[in-house]
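We include the entry.

. . .
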Amino acid sequence: MYLPVRVTAGAVAVALLLAGCSTEKPGTASPAPTQPMSSGAAANPDVPKVTTPLDVSKYTAKPCDIVPAPTLSALQFTEPGDTQLQDDGIGAVGPGCSWKISGAGVSMQVIIGTGNRDRGLGGLAGLYTAHEDGQFPFLEKAPDVEGYPAIYIDKRDRRPQGNCSLDIGVADDLAVGVYSGGYEGQQDSCAAAGQVAAAVITTLKGA
């Protein structure tokens, strides 16, 4: 699977939500399933609801614009982001943008999960279902982001190694993923992801 910069396991794991039990060879984009996953998560009382859905349509064609430049600069991401639209690589999950700090091995990625939504796999409910189905063994509730529910989710908990995978529910059927990689540890990686996530929600509230 191709991404313009090194990505965290969380970003790849979100792609697996679409790929399911694919038999594709590693390094090739896997087809998305045509049927929704099991509906158990939709009725799962543990799945937080989104009371005020946010509209992401303004940013699906230009996903890099969803994070304000001052937020990125404060985190030392000074180079332009690399856009991945929905028909590119693992972009079937939805459009995204990746940033990196050259020479530091540090990366940040945001994915707007419209592809998952359109296939009936979207929102935190879809991620809870993927957790219950064993695709993501690690899932933990995260603090709300600007009033919106969030979870940490990954193939395993890689936060102590400096990789933080944070998904925020912006509608009951739509999540935005923020993935930081290459940081010193859990505090640094999740603090950076949290800053970007908060900026994304603030941007969407003003869209």
About this structure: The CA atoms of residues 26 and 57 lie 32 Å apart. The chain has a mean pLDDT of 82. The first helix runs from residue 9 to 19. The first strand starts at residue 82 and ends at 84.
